[in-house]
Amino acid sequence: MCWPLVDEPKASAQHSGKAALCVRAFAACLRLYIKRGPTFGSYRSVCERGREAAERDMSQYSGKIKFYEGRCFTGRCLEVYGDCDNFQDRGFMNRVNSIRVESGAWICYDHPDFRGQQYMLERGEYPEFQRWNSHNDHMGSCRPIRMHGEHYRMELFEGCNYSGQCMELCDDCPFLQSRGFNPNCVNSIRVFGDGAWVMYEEPNFRGRMYIVERGNYCSHNEWQAQNPHIQSIRRVVNYF
Description:
This protein is α+β, with helices and mostly antiparallel strands. It has two helices and 14 strands. Helix 1 runs antiparallel to helix 2. The radius of gyration is 20 Å and the shape is elongated. This is Beta/gamma crystallin 'Greek key' domain-containing protein.
């Protein structure tokens, strides 16, 4: 089997850079496997070492988060540096009672495959699950926010497919009706700029939350909401 090697990426090519890091990390382990033979371990262990090395290199782009089974950072620990679609695939049960976010901003989900209720975790310590506004210790997957923003802008629409009353936001809003957005229903949005946003079902940044990054969302189903009720919105600003 032949694995392609890529040139050093330019600083602006973020996704190409991540791919290059993965290829280089895996290629380094594969060369050691070929050189040392069986004494270096099984082919599967080589792949695992390559994945771990790639994740460590990618942490400079994505951040680092630690999940603990027990409260106050006790019990078994799972370190994640990038997308993780199923904690159980890493040998970690879907029970999380405390979290340390060492860098980056993260979307965590209470089900695998980036499904279920969403939680926004920014840099800091969360000694118990109530600190991230959860009612239980279920956690199944996570991914980092990759839009590290300085320019924030979004448009909210009352109706689906960008119809009805429209309001533009460039900063945090603890209560949409105070800005003149009469309905408490947001059925479609457009996110511009390079920053991510957290939308809440209740005023003052409370209740169930949904995280959106740059793109078009023609209905509330596209941000995995069961209903269109949104009453407060804030920017994600605490990345590193």
